């Protein structure tokens, strides 16, 4: 209900005070007067009633009115005149914050467009309408509800109490030393990466690691081997830098090195995800890995190894990294903790060959000086106290269960329509559409309208696909969300596919 009030020269009617709310009357009065002043309902030069009169009319404490008046005086909304009273300022502070735009510019504003490069325009269109990862089946979303929040909170408090003075100052541009030591030790055991802490450079993400490599090692128009289909974030980074991206086909053994050497034998860089190819999930065999390393050594070219999803291998131990086989110092190894722990952490790493450490460290310093220190200190403790290993072990079991839930739901509701196979690693599944489907875009749009997020395989490919598919993330969604998402997708496919095609697929 509204607080009973009477009008004083029309002022009280502009300030609707409510008692049935948790907002204090002082705050309501302040906001009401401020809005009336900014909107010019109370023009500059208007004399306000005294605090005693207004308090009586609004039936509130005079002290409250005095405090509000004083606050508005301090902020420049009001001005006091000795012996005369309190007036609305003729120059409202909010008006000073807004630039004055000539009417001729306002009339043309709808037709003004920034001048963008053709590469930026193309990449902007490709990456438009990204979703926030809260709806099945968004890719890369971890199980946030299963993260050990209490442990992390305790480590944050401990780090703050222990060394806040050290962490609040400027830091080493390559990262917090204990964290670099912890990462080097972990990668050596878990991924057979051969490195020291000096080779580890802390980044905000694997994407920043790519940017450092591009700016340090590449020249405009240099050729880059790119898995096709492959990680679109890397492709956009290469294209924005003016590099020539060479799409290389993928087979059951990963990137086809023979085909790549035919397409661009003198390429300066190869980007690969050898242990769990993104998004198809294939693994690069040992013979092909050695062939790729031999090419890089012979051509004096570079290899970026992105080890995405390898912590979550459900059959046996994680495969050794390609970097561990590199004797010529041609592999740069990138990784991130965002998908493993939580996206907002924004911490990753780049393991550089010894000869490139100083150059990459300089580029890292020029980017944003250094990464945030408190988060690094907490993560270092999280790893060194073995919370990280335990968390990965728990998530490996949880994600294996969720993959099975997704496969079972698809088999129940869309058998013959979507084709899926078990994936021994990762956080997503490839779902293949019937071979007669020529484009997946109508399916993706219809599913989004019904509350389901899909990534089409075509968004990761530069060349025409032999078969359309969908990339379905499952790690960040519980059983009910997965099943309901599959049921929704089933209804979407029934609507969007030709009825005869859907019927034939179901009966197959």
Notes on the protein architecture:
By secondary structure, the chain is of the alpha/beta class. It folds into 3 domains: 12-95, Winged helix-like DNA-binding domain superfamily/Winged helix DNA-binding domain (Arc Repressor Mutant, subunit A); 172-370, Type I PLP-dependent aspartate aminotransferase-like (Major domain) (Aspartate Aminotransferase, domain 2), CATH 3.40.640.10; 390-507, Aspartate Aminotransferase, domain 1, CATH 3.90.1150.10. Helices cover 43% and strands 12% of the residues. The protein contains 18 helices and 15 strands. The strands form 3 sheets. It has an 8-stranded mixed β-sheet, sandwiched between helices. Strands 12-13-15-14 form a 4-stranded antiparallel β-sheet, covered by helices on one side. Strand 2 (78-81) and strand 3 form a beta hairpin. Helix 8 (177-190) packs parallel to helix 14. The longest helix is centred in the last third of the chain and has 27 residues, at 387-413.
